[in-house]
Amino acid sequence: MTTDVQQLADEQEDGNAGLAAAVAAARELKKKGYRYRHALVPHAVVAGTWCAGVTLHAFAVPAWQVLAGEAAVAAVVAAGFPKARTRLRRRIWWTAAGIWLPIAAELGAGDWRLSLLVGVGGLLAIPRVWRYRISIVRPTKSRRELARSKQRAALEAKAPDPNVTVWAAKTASRKGSLPGSKLTNRTPFEYGVRYRIELDGQTTEDAMGARKQICADFGKALDYLLVDETDDGLLNAAELTILDRLAVEDVQPWTEPGLDVETGVWRIGPFADGRGEAALQVWEPGSGPLPVGVFGAMRVGKSSIIKQAAVEFRKATERGYPIHLIYMDPQRGQSAPSVLPYVSEPALGIDEIRTRLLQLRQEMNDRNAYLAKVEHVDSNGFKQRGVQSYDRPGAHGLPMLIVPIDEFHKVAQYDDLAEIVHELKAEGSKCGIMPWILNQDAIVDSLGGGEILRLLNSGNLVVLRTGDTYTAQATFGQRLEAYPDRIRKTFPNSNKHTKGCGYVLGATSRSVMMRIRDVANLGAVLGDEPPQPIQWMCGASAPAGSPAEPAAGNDQGEPGVEELPDLDLDGNVVDFVALDQEQQTNAEQTILRLLDGAENGLDAADLTLGAGLPLVTVFRVATDLCHAGVVRQDGDRYVKVAS
To answer: Where are the alpha helices (DSSP H) in 108-142?
Structure first.
C-alpha cells in the first residue's frame, strides 16, 4: 500500500515538473515572440501575401474582383478602425501588396518576375526592423521604459555640470582665485573626472598655486583635487582632476621589476589619481648614480623603499647590471631587520658604519685613479685614455655601490662621518658610488650643516608623511606643491593606513600623492640565496682578474691594492674625559640651566656649544640625567621634565 502511494506521489510530482517545464517553455517562447515581434511582422506579411496570390490564382479569381475586395477592406478600416488606418498608412508594403495581389491572381504567383517583386517587397521591411532594433538588443525593457531612459539621458545632457557651476560661481568669480577662467573638456575616468582649465590672464603656476583655495571652493581634501600642467604645455591652461576615490587606498604590492636598466628610471609606486607611477632616476646613462633622500616621520614606510630596492637591484644584477646595496643602520639593524639577509655587507652600529665609510672612501679614490688612466675605445672608434664618468652598472668591470644610511641624524652627529658622506655624494657618482639618506626630518643640523641637503636637492627626493611643513619647504622648495604634513595616519572615512604615501621629485615631478610598492616577503621573491659578494678594488678580498690585481704603475695606470689602515674606534669624535663627582655635578647643573630656557628642548650640538664640553661628555651626562628622570629625550632633543 505504501509503495502504491509513493508511486502515485512520484508520478504526480513528475507530472507537475513536466507541466512547470511546459509553462516555462511557453513563457520563454512568448518572451522571444514579443522580443522579435517587430522583425517577424513584416516577414509574416510578405509570406502571407505570397500565399494569398497563389490561392487567388488557383481559384481563378479575376483581378477586378481582387481590386474590389481591397477597396472594400480599405473602406471598412477607414470607417471603423481609425488607429489601424493610421498604422497602415505608414507601412509601404501594404500598398505594394495591394498592387501585387491582382497581378498574381491574373498571371499566377509562380512567375519568376512576380517572385522578384515579392523579394523587393521583403527588402522594404528592412527599415522597420532597423528602427526597432533596440527592442531586440534590449528585450527586457518595454518601449515606454526605453522612451523614459532616452528622456532622462537628454535631460542629463542638457543639465549643467555641477563642477562647472561651482567653478563659475566661486573660483572664476571676480573675487575667486582664478577670475575669468572656465572649465572645458570634461573627461570622466575610473577614479573621478578631469577638466581643462582655460585661464584668463593667469599662468599654469598661478593655477597650481591656487590649489588650496580651489579645494575650499569644492569642499575637497587636498589629495582629492589636483591641478597639473596640460599635455600641450601651454602656460594659459591647466588640468583639474577631481577624485571620488584614491588609487592608493589599498597597499600596493610589488609584482614585477620597475627598474629600467637601460635608462636608470625606477618606478616605485602609483600616483593617487591612477595616472602613471612615480619614479626615481637612480642613475643617468653616461653620467653616474644620483643621490636619493627619503624623509618622513616614524613608522611611515621608509623601509619599504629599501626592501623594494633590494629586490630591484638583485634582479638588475641577474640581468647583467651589477648593483650592490650596502645598507647602514646606526641602530644595529633594528630599523629594517627583514632587509639584512638580502643586502651586501650591511654596516650596523656607528663603529661598523665608520669602518665601511672609510672603506668606501678608499674605494672611491682607487676607482677614480683607475678610471682616470684606463684605456678604452670611444663611440667614434678612437682609443682614449681615461673616462670622465660612470656610464651604467658594471661599466669598466666596476659594480654600482648604493649605500642607504638609515636614521642619518645619528650619523651626522659625528663630523668625520658627515664629512665622508658629503665627499662620497660630491665625488662618488663619477665612479659608481652613491649614498642614500633616510631620515625622519630634513633639519639642516641633521644633514651635515646643509651641505648634504643641497646635494640631495640635485637628485631624487621622497617625502612621506611628516609632522610639519618644514621638510617639504626645505626639500621641494618652489619646485613642487606638496603637502606631506596633510597626510593622516589613515585615509578619510577609512581605517586603512597611509604607510608609504608621500610625494616624489625625481624622474617624475607631479604634485600628486603616491604610494611606494611594498614587498611583503623578501624571501618569497629572492629565495634563500645570499647576495653576491662585493668586488672591492681597495681591499684584498677582490677576486683574481679584477681591477685590484694589477700592481701600481702598470701600463693601464691601475692602482695597486692597499690594505685599510687599522682604525682606533675608541674615540669616535673626541676623546672622552672622565669626570670626578664635582665635575659631574657642575656639568649636570650647566645642562639643566641651558634646558630651563628651551621650551622645545635642545639637541646634543646645542648643549655642546652652550656648555663648552666635549660632545661625548655631553652625551654621557645627558644620558645620566635621563636615567635620573630629570630630563627626557624627545627624538634627538633633550627636554627638561617639569617638576
So the answer is: 112-123, 126-131, 133-137
